[in-house]
């Protein structure tokens, strides 16, 4: 009976920890753990962001190509389909960098 109780508590604790920290499910980079560089991210990396599917990822890349690299991450709201609400969901998961190898977020 005690063994069953400990198993249930352990599973509950792990589930709760994962619920509170979804970034634990993503790969970490040494510089910006669990983030996507919106200046370098491809469709696959950008699509890992909440609310960003293939179509929106392609719009981000198109915007970046036409207007140059993002200077501030807030500029992503200039991309059609990314409003204030969507930005609030992803702002802690994106970075703006000139480095090419910072698209580290994986599913």
Folded structure, characterized:
The chain is mostly helical. The protein has a domain at 27-95: AF1531-like domain (DNA polymerase, domain 1, Orthogonal Bundle), CATH 1.10.150.280. Helix content is 41%, strand content 4%. It is built from 4 helices and 2 strands, in the order H-E-H-H-H-E. It has helices at 2-20, 43-46, 54-67, 84-90, and strands at 36-37, 94-95. Strands 1-2 form a two-stranded parallel sheet. It is elongated, with a radius of gyration of 17 Å. Mean pLDDT is 79; it is low at 20-30 and 101-107.
Could you give a short description of this structure?
By secondary structure, the chain is mainly α. Helix content is 41%, strand content 4%.
Brief descriptors of the model:
single chain, 107 residues, mainly alpha, DNA polymerase, domain 1, two-stranded parallel sheet, elongated
Global geometry: elongated
Question: What is the straight-line distance between the termini?
Answer: 37 Å
Q: What strand order characterises the main sheet?
A: 1-2
Largest sheet: number of strands, sense, barrel closure: 2 strands, parallel
């Amino acid at each position: 009976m005690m063994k069953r109780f400990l198993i249930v508590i352990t599973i509950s604790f792990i589930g709760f920890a994962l619920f509170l920290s979804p970034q634990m499910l993503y790969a970490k980079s040494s510089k910006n753990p669990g983030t996507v560089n919106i200046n370098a991210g491809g469709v696959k990396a950008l699509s890992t962001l909440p609310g960003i599917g293939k179509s929106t990822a392609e719009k981000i890349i198109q915007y970046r190509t036409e207007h140059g690299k993002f200077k501030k991450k807030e500029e992503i709201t200039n991309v059609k389909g990314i409003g204030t609400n969507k930005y609030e969901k992803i702002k802690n998961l994106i970075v703006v960098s000139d480095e090419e190898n910072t698209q580290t977020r994986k599913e």
